[in-house]
Amino acid sequence: MKTSDFFYDLPQELIAQHPLEPRDSSRLMHLGKADGKVEHKYFYDICDYLKEGDCLILNNTRVLPARIYGVKEGTGANVEFLLLNCIETDVWEVLAGPGKRAKEGTRFTFGEGIMQAEILEVLPNGNRIAKFTYNAANIYEALDKVGEMPLPHYITEKLEDKERYQTVYSKELGSAAAPTAGLHFTPALLQKIKDMGVKIGYVTLHVGLGTFRPVKAEKIEEHKMHSEHYSIPKETADIINETKKNGGRVIAVGTTCCRTLESVCQAKGEVCEYDDWTSIFIYPGYEFKCIDCLLTNFHLPESTLIMLVSAFCGYENTMNAYKTAVEERYRFFSFGDAMLIS
């Protein structure tokens, strides 16, 4: 298939610039996996589609306020860093801009001296390896003081409350972007889901910036995926296997959960306690080994994420659903509305 097969026209005004309040007041499209039938609901209606004996799997990663602004020591020239991956204690792979100001050995100061960084290495892909020092208990405390949320490029409005780009169950620090399908849940809604006999399990996949990287290959099979770290605790593996054994459904909240569960099945042949890196690329033709339902937001045209959705519920169903979503004025992307495929 061609990347252009996954293009759709999206009016600019449908790209959500801010999250709705309360979280579960967003709209919810239900898409029938078998027949492509579309129903229009609100997110707080999600229990209508869940059954006792199902399990809901959530990604509990927490987004780092990883965008920091500083100055180059000596010249005072402005610089922006985006922390990507922790290589070792206080040593990170970063995206630096403008890159010409971040040569090997250059030093920078952030937050009026709260953080400092020295460039150790310039990588072939243009990213930098930087060593950080700070006036705080640890680098995460320092980032809380000086950092901003690394919102996607299509969100141009300022986010007033950092927690609105975190899920209410976020726990494990390490993501460069939020697992946005989970942003719709409230503590009360999660409790309601538990009370109806749906088990809830957590995995961790730290979302990398590669999730926003455009597919440049003409043929989708030629696209190379970025790598992301994930882990599945024994408790969650047990919930999934017990659900399957008893005939319940495994509902993945977001493409990150989907990729995590399918990755462990690909690596180990089953869902089990596991910790690894994945660069799995799911597109039409892929045979799903674990998940039965998928909850997700509406994704960018020609992205690997819309390809994953197409693999799960069929190309025609997906593109028709997106066409309907545009016609019905759904809100798109990270702060937008949701789709449940079951």
SSE layout:
Layout: E1 27-31, E2 38-42, E3 55-59, E4 61-63, E5 67-72, E6 78-88, E7 91-97, E8 107-110, E9 115-122, E10 128-134, H1 139-146, E11 172-175, H2 187-195, E12 199-205, E13 228-232, H3 234-245, E14 250-253, H4 255-268, E15 274-278, E16 293-297, H5 304-313, H6 315-327, E17 338-341
Helix pairs in contact: 5-6
What structural keywords apply?
342 residues, alpha/beta, QueA-like, Thrombin, subunit H, 9-stranded mixed beta sheet, 6 helices, 17 strands, globular
What does this structure look like?
There is one protein chain. The model has no long low-confidence stretch (mean pLDDT 95). The chain is globular. A hairpin with a 4-residue loop joins strand 8 and strand 9. The chain is of the alpha/beta class and 342 residues long. Helix content is 19%, strand content 28%. The chain folds into 2 domains: 3-63 and 161-341, QueA-like (3-Layer(aba) Sandwich), CATH 3.40.1780.10; 67-146, QueA-like (Thrombin, subunit H). It has helices at 139-146, 187-195, 234-245, 255-268, 304-313, 315-327; strands spanning 27-31, 38-42, 55-59, 61-63, 67-72, 78-88, 91-97, 107-110, 115-122, 128-134, 172-175, 199-205, 228-232, 250-253, 274-278, 293-297, 338-341. It starts with 26 loop residues before the first strand and ends with a strand. The chain is built from 6 helices and 17 strands. The strands form 3 sheets. A 9-stranded mixed sheet has the order 2-1-17-16-14-3-12-13-15. A 6-stranded antiparallel β-barrel has the order 5-6-7-10-9-8. Strands 4-11 form a two-stranded parallel ribbon.
